[in-house]
Amino acid sequence: MVWPWLSCLLLPALVVSVTANVAPTFLRNMTTVTLPEDLPVGAEAFWLAAQDLDQDALTYGISGSNAYFFTVTAATGEVKLASPLDYETQYWFTIIISVSDGHNNPVQKDMQVIVEDRNDNAPVFQNTGFSTSISETLPVGSVVFSVLAEDKDTGSAGAVVYSIEEVIPSTGDSRHLFEILANGSIILNGSLSYNNKSAFYQLELKACDSGGPYNNDFVIQCSSPVFLSISVVDQPDLDPQFVRVSYLASVAEDAPQGASVLKVEAVDSDKGINDPVTYSISNSTRPGWFDIGSDGVIRVNGSLDREQLLEEDEEVQVQVTATEMHLNIYGQEAKVSIWVTLRVTDVNDHKPEFYNCSLSACTFTPQEAQNNFTGYVEEHASTRIPIDDLTMVVYDPDKGSNGTFLLSLGGPDAEAFSVSPSRVAGSADVQVLVRAPSLVDYETQTVMLVQVVATDSVSGNASVASVTIHLRDINDHTPTFPHSVYNLSVFEHSTKGFVVTDSIHALDPDTGEGGRITYSLLPGNGVDVFEVDPDSGTVTVRDSELLDREKQAVYYLTLQATDGGGLSGSTTLQIFLLDINDNEPVVSGSYSIFVQEEKDNVSVTIQAQDNDQPETNNSLLHFSLLAGPYSHNFSVDPDDGTLRNLGPLDREAIDPGLGGRIVLTVRVADCGVPVLSTEVNVTITVEDINDNLPVFTQPTYSFPVKERDPGVLVGVVAASDADQTEANNRISFSLSGNGTNNFMLRGTVLGSGWAEGRLSLPADVSLDYETQASFTLTVNAENPDPQGAEAAAEILVTVEDVNDEPPTLDSVSLQGIRVAENGSQHGLVAEVVARDVDTMAQLEVQLVNVICTKAGVDVGSLCHGWFSVLANGSVFVNQSEAIDYETCDLVTLVVRAYDLTTDPHFQAYSDNGSLPITIEDVNDNAPYFLPENKTFVIIPELVMPNQQVASVRARDNDSGDNGAILFSILQVDFIAKDGATTPFQGFFQISTSSEDNVFIGNIELVTSLDSTLQGTYHVTVQAQDSPSVGPAQEAQIALNLFTVDQSYRVRLQFSMNKEEVGANLKEITTALAQATRTTVYTVSIQDAESTQVRGRSYLDAYFVFPNGTALTVNELSVTIRSDQDSLTRLLQLGLVVLGSQESQESDTPTVLSGVIIGLVVVLLLVIVIMSAALVCARKSYHRKLSAMKAAQEARRTVAGVMPSVSAIPGTNMYTTEWANPMLNLATKDLGFESQAFSSDLDQISFSSLDDNSVDLEKDKQKIKKKPLHSPTEPDPEPLSVVLAGRKPGTGGQELSFTEAGLNTTDL
Q1: Strand pairing of 936-938 and 1034-1043?
Q2: Which of 424, 623, 834, 972 gives 20 to 30 Å between its CA and that of 926?
Q3: Which carries the bigger pLDDT value, residue 645 or residue 1192?
Q4: Which residues have CB under 8 Å from 1040's CB, separation 6+?
Q5: What pLDDT, on the 0 to 100 scale, is given for residue 1204?
Q6: pLDDT confidence tier of residue 400, bands split at 50, 70 and 90
Q7: Which letter does DSSP use for residue 1210 in this model?
Q8: Does 1252 have pLDDT greater than 50?
Q9: Pfam families, from UniProt (predicted)?
């Protein structure tokens, strides 16, 4: 109600303003200007353009807090840059532009200046300290240091790329030792070594951007180089080292304990650590002689003795180990060892010593040292003869003169002996020699004693050794026996070594070697039969075989005894041999006898003798018959050896292989001990006579034969004759009986007394089962003897029917069966039955193939092992647990029957049959939700009860009821934006439907939702199957339903009615979705109700992101403006204005009120306008004249040519001289001005986003719009005709003149 009264109060002022002067107005596009930040100071930035209906001179200005950036030429509106722009400091700002005509108050307007980024900044490293320390053991690939360089520019101009320009020291291995990653991390590319490579590295780093436009060129900006210092920290990973390669020193053997000998020194190889080193003796050839202190000085630790080192070159080897005080990086001791040579020098600290050894083998050990020695010598030995068995060595371990000494002899018997040598240096063998042979007498004394004295030539110290000398006796007696003859006896063939006598001994009174007696047999008869022990004199048998009484009964031997001096004596041995049973009986001649079977008798005497002593048991003989195969038919006399048969002999009872010969063995034995015997063979040949008939192997033969098979072998008969000679056992066959003309019989000799007859059909004869099913024949066997009888046997020949029919499968047994999956069934599930009309058919069922299908589609070999088919047709479940309905629902077993006995000339297989096995489903799969790449958004004002707001899809691999899914909502929670959770039950419901085995759960709204709530509905949905048997299985999923309230509702104005917008709705939403990357939810499309915007329509929509957030109107404007392709398409589809619903609705009452007030003002001002017509006509004339001049200028301007002067922001109009800024040329805005309304005053926008007009870039294609005309075409307007007649330029831009307020028709 306030607006009408306010309009009435302002009415007089409006009347005065209209009648006086009209204030200028800025062009509609003077809202936004875009400037590059590298625009030079003083350069032309843009032009201010305004229009004044009164054609007054205009004055332009810029004010506001950011006006210092520009200077403006007040008269022309040219704006130049006064202060440099910086995108990074201020990427947009607002200035106040003003224009004044000198009559009215200045007109002001906010202009938004958008600063475009340019690549005017180089990356800058953010790190403050560029130094670091790393361990030399740092693993390859580890991060050494991280740098960060920032570039304030945007896009590729702000994308930083790092590089290592140089590595110091610049060596071959350090050049690629480090690498810098894209994120600024510097990593180690190789191994470090503080001691072997470098302890310090310096890296020159540089950061460059990826390039961008700057000063009309593509420029890459790089930072100033920075230097990263990397210190390598030494780690204790090396062992210490001795400063010298070897150490050698000398020390006297009498050096006192604690005396210094040598100093060794070792240092830590890790130069950066220099860990202190401790020393120790870890090994020594003489432990305990030396030790070492912490200062590395080796000192004498005990008594030294050079003489103990003679085999070691008088040197002691000491291993010194240097150990660092701290463990190395591996937790072990860092140490090094070296061998030190210490030479011990001699002093005279020993006297000569005696040793019981030879000089070449003596080791001069304390065990070999000895003061008492023993030797031997024969009495009255010659002068200078040495004492035997005396091994004496004298030794002084000192060197040079310290080791020189004298030898002399002492003791009670020193006059009889001497010593050699008399002077010794170091060591020598000592000999004691006979000096006076007369004093060496065994009969006077058997043992003599002397002393050998060794005196040191320097110190005078002496050692004494006693030598005990044993004298040897001389042989002067001869051995003698007590008797001259000895009588002895022994059994013949006594074993070798058998003692004949051990009691015969000789005597010799001498001692020693002279009294030792040796026995021997002098050459003669019997020395090769007997032998004597040389020491004991025992006589034994030497050769048992030669000791034979039958050859020689008595032996005479001479036994000799010899002492050690060669003197000897002898005696005679007379040895008699005793008899033993050592000769076997001897049989004279051979025995072979011939007799006829059953007629002749055997009688033969065995001749034998024995060579042992007569009339003794050793020569008494006894006869016996050894057991044999035929010995029971004979007997032998034990005393005289006569052999006789006990009954008639039968040739056929003898093995045929023996040829009638019987071999008997007769044993001839003596009666001695042990019993000796001899065996003799007696051969008796029994001659054959024809006394046996032939005999068949069986009395009756039965042979089958197949019909229609000529020339085949029917059967074989066999007969034998027991006679053992060919003349008596030869067999021939003959055939008789009914039907013999159909057969032939051929005889064959198999062996002695054996023959066979092969019964067969002639080659041109075959039997017919239907004509005669059997034949009975008689076969005869006879000997060649014409007087002999014959044998007979019966043959039954059966004609067999031929198996010529193939088997068949019983169709009833091939009817389909059903088997449940997943181990539900086991064992036998079906029986395939096969039949054959042949009588001898032997059938088996074979599995030919297995076909696996799922829903009629072959799935390969998945089911090949599920079932097995036995030969008897039994079908078993083979892999019960492997049967899976979801992979295969039908198994087809292809089988056939096979007759094993079918004749090879006929078909043995039946036709293939199929046994279908349907796999029944078991509820073994739980439902599962299918992935959905969807975001569910609830717009409360759009959704109504029972309307779907979301959906889920699920599948169950089971079938039937097992795979039927029922959805339910378990829980609904509302999660507000502040995180608070509130249960919401009963607001949603879900329905279940299915399509192509996919179950769909549609979530629907039960009741209206509160549109003021902002947050997310968290809905938990459960999918459960419905098995007929067993428990149900289920799955759950949680959905987020995002809410979008009405504050995000955006209204888009189009320059067409709602029907046209509806027809293009798909293209419009596609372009909007492409520009915003959102989902577009259309609320409504309606025509504009205002008459001023007749022909337009509104589209209300929400623009929602996948995460549930939505675009506001301002965000939508910026987003669309950033995608020029989509913007161009939307303009072509008629998009005019972007705005919110509230702003557009709030502007509508204002516009309507303004229209009412305008109508009142028009009625009141009609009279005033008529009064001022004359004044206005003059001004109109001047204005139209200016338009004609502009037309002349337009003819000289080629369409599409861009002038070189600056553009008016928001338009393509330029400030060329003669150009009229009122021309409505094609602009680079949204095309809002392209609509043909009655006047500029009618083009008042209902949008609150006038400042959101979008500028297209210069390289985009111009949008061609034709002005709308009224239904009745007026006369052509001259200026429009002129402009339309111009030749188009290369740009193809089309100029139009549609300013209705300026008409030149009356010119």
Answers
A1: parallel
A2: 972
A3: 645
A4: 936, 1016, 1017, 1018, 1019, 1108
A5: 43
A6: confident
A7: T
A8: no
A9: Cadherin
- How is residue 286 written in tokens? 């003489």
Q: Is the peptide bond before 1278 cis (omega within 30 degrees of 0)?
A: no
Per-residue pLDDT at 1226 exceeds 60: no
Strand intervals (E) in 956-1014: 965-976, 981-983, 988-995, 998-1005
Give the contacts of 507 (CB within 8 A, at least 6 positions apart): 479, 480, 482
Kindly report whether the peptide bond that precedes residue 509 is cis, defined as omega within 30 degrees of 0. no
Contact by Cβ (8 Å): 1053, 1098? yes
Residue identified by tokens 């400042």 is 1251
Q: Is the pLDDT of residue 1200 over 60?
A: no
Of residues 27, 112, 116, the one with CA closest to residue 1252: 112
Cα–Cα nearest to 1305, from 1183, 1184, 1133: 1184
Stretch 933-939: mean pLDDT: 77
* Residue matched to tokens 């992935």: 931
**Distance set, CA 450 to CA 284, 336, 445 (Å):** 45, 61, 14
Whose structure tokens read 């004979």?
A: 634
The highest-confidence range among 55-64, 518-527, 595-604, 1152-1161, by mean pLDDT, is 55-64
Range list of β-strands (E), 509-581 = 517-521, 530-532, 539-541, 554-563, 568-578
Q: What is the largest distance, in Å, between two alpha-carbon atoms of the chain?
A: 208
The separation between CA 496 and the C-alpha centre of its own chain, rounded to angstroms, equals: 81
Burial class (CB in 10 A: 0-12, 13-18, 19+), 152: middle
Closest to 201 in 3D by CA, of 230, 234, 171: 230
Under the banding of pLDDT at 50, 70 and 90, the label for residue 1156 is: low
The 10s digit of each residue's pLDDT in 796-837 is 998 887 777 789 999 888 888 989 888 878 889 899 999 887
pTM greater than 0.85: no
Phi-psi region of 19 (alpha: psi -120 to 50; beta: other; left: phi over 0): alpha
Instruction: Judge contact between 1081 and 1110, C-beta under 8 A.
Output: no
Average pLDDT over residues 776-799: 83
Give the β-pairing of 774-782 and 290-292.
unpaired
Give the Cα separation of 263 and 275 in Å (integer): 19
Place of tokens 């599930």: 829
Tokens in use for 1175?
A: 């004044």
Residue-by-residue DSSP string for 1037-1090: EEEEEEE--GGG-EEEEESS-HHHHHHTHHHHHHHHHHHH-SEEEEEEEEE---
What are 591's strand-pairing partners? 682
Tokens 């007799």 -> residue: 595
Could you tell me where the beta strands, DSSP code E, fall in 103-210? 107-116, 124-125, 131-135, 143-146, 149-150, 160-168, 178-180, 185-188, 200-209
Start-to-end CA distance of the chain, whole Å, equals: 47
Q: Mean pLDDT, the chain, as a whole number?
A: 81
Report the distance separating Cα 661 and Cα 1038, nearest Å.
111
How confident is the model over 672-694, as pLDDT tens digits?
888 889 999 999 888 878 777 88
**1202 pLDDT more than 50:** no
Q: With beta carbons less than 8 A apart as the criterion, state whether 423 and 408 touch.
A: no
CA distance 58 to 267: 95
What pLDDT does 880 receive?
A: 84
Concatenate the DSSP letters of all residues of 412-477 into one string. TTGGGEEEE-SEEESEEEEEEEES-GGG--TTT-SEEEEEEEEEETTT--EEEEEEEEEEEP----
Q: What is the pLDDT of residues 704-762, one digit of tens each?
A: 988 878 889 989 999 988 887 877 888 888 898 888 888 999 988 888 888 999 999 99
Check: CB of residue 496 under 8 Å from CB of residue 535.
no
343-354 as b/e, with b when 16 or more CB fall inside 10 Å? Answer: ebebebebbbbb
